Amino acid sequence: MTSKELKDRLWDAANALRGSVSAAQYKYPVLGLVFLKYISDTFEAQGDVIRGKLADPASDIFIDDDTLREESAAMFVEDKTFYESDNVFWVPEEARFQKLLDYSAQPDLPQKLDEAMRMIEKENTTLTGVLYRNYGRLELEAGKLGELMGIVAQLKFDPRNHGSRDVFGEVYEYFLGKFARMEGQRAGEFYTPKCVVETLVEVLAPFRGKIYDPACGSGGMFVQSAKFMEAHAGTLGKKGDLAIYGQELMAETRKLCKMNLAIHGLEGNIGKTYASTFTNDQHPTLRADFLLANPPFNISNWGGEKLEEDPRWAYGIPPKGNANFAWLQHMLARLSHKGRAGVVLANGSMSSQQSGEGAIREGMIKDDVVECMVALPGQLFSTAAIPVCLWFLSKDKKPGINGKADRSGQILFIDCRQMGTLIPGSRIQKELSEEEIQKIAQTYHRWRETDFSDGEDYQDEAGFCASVDLVGVEKHGFVLTPGRYVGANGIEADSVPFEEKMTELSSRLYVQMKETSMLDDVIRKNMEVLGYGE
């Protein structure tokens, strides 16, 4: 089978066993079993690695005598230190996947799985509180859990085969994406469409330093960044050159992230606990070189009323009713002096004027920290009906580490609203092709003349991209909608897109309705004072 056929087959089989269990509830036990299979296979393969080292004359534990080597192997494969030294999780015998598979037809399998997860967490402190341990409470029909284990058992992993790890990681990410489509709006807590993540990574090109995601979900930004690093390992460095930092609000989503990192062989500091980035920042002293995020945008209950004096608000206090400009300012506060950020936000953030947002955006533009704006096509997100855009921020636009071209006082606008095609099998959700992602990324890299550019000169392209100085942006009232700058392409250059107009008008209407309600209360109280009340 091809990789896609394998993933499709596994998903169809696993989903067929779901019964009446919701996708939101079902994803944790399924992904938990995928992880258990991964660490079990890794553990067993490490035994072969240890035996191989004992027989290898170039190894520091080589033993020449055959009898002594066999005796030593029997001891070493049961010695936890030989696993920990190679960053392999220690899996107790009763917790290994194959051992549990032997009990797949037994009625107490759920309890055995819960105990297995407890034992693994006890032996590996980095997994404490991470694994799914509620199989005993899962409301699956009798025998379904054993069948699910049989499906996951089709995965095979050997750490000596690099491609095998990729298969495991791809299955995990594929399952996350499928669950996201099934869960719809709720899935925004843990999943960003892969093509959006790839676009962010290809533009930012993280290759060395600290990388940070303050709303990391299931860790997709980190995984894709590591893949980018591996693809350029021959010339720029290796995966270990990226130090991972993240934070996640939801406890269960944080567990998904830690498992995702482990499956991809990555280590990261995801904070001491799950918490709000605004009110309980887990990395207050961090200064990151790269920041990638798809934060929960347009949220109103972010704790703004408690943070009016927060030092992160360098450009103005964000409105209590919308966290968009709180996210942007938090990210700027966590960037190093050469750092760059890529952020997914609602389109309204590019033009909103209410509650001081316009003034904050103007301050950021005048301070020259806005580097590039990308308008994405609609329908990329199964989890958000409103159209979104990408903000790219930079603390340093001068020639140097971020590119040879001096782009001080300029902003690159890219309009991708005409891109994207429907995902096979979906009637509404679109995705960007690899060619489209590369076109976006190369436009940026040519503009900055980075090491990742294909060497061609940057040129404005009508209807797609334009480099505009800050005077030109000021003429448009510091609105950052790319369609206003790139010229006509089926959409008038100076028009505002319908979706953006609706978002802004809806926000204004909400504010006006709220003010009307307050005025009604005042009038009613005055009438009562005058004796005309009910």
The fraction of residues assigned to DSSP E strands is 5-15%
Please tell me the overall pLDDT: 87
Gyration radius from CA atoms, angstroms: 26 Å
For the largest sheet, list the strands in their spatial order: 3-2-1-4-5-7-6-8-11
Tell me the overall shape: globular
Number of spatially distinct domains: 2
Largest sheet: 9 strands, mixed
What string, H for helix and E for strand, traces the elements in order? HHHHHHHHHEHHEHEEHEHEEEEEHEHH
Number of helices: 17
Percent of residues in helices comes to 40-55%
What is the terminal-to-terminal distance?
Answer: 77 Å
CATH topology (fold) name of the largest domain: Rossmann fold
Low-confidence segments, ≥5 residues, pLDDT <50? 490-495
Q: How does this model look, in words?
A:
With 534 residues, the protein is α/β, with parallel strands linked by helices. It folds into two domains: 3-177, Up-down Bundle (Ferritin), CATH 1.20.1260.30; 182-484, Rossmann fold (3-Layer(aba) Sandwich). 42% of the residues lie in helices and 11% in strands. The chain is built from 17 helices and eleven strands. The protein has a nine-stranded mixed beta sheet. A two-stranded antiparallel ribbon has the order 9-10. Helix 2 runs parallel beside helix 12 (251-263). It is globular and about 95 Å long. The relative contact order is 0.08.
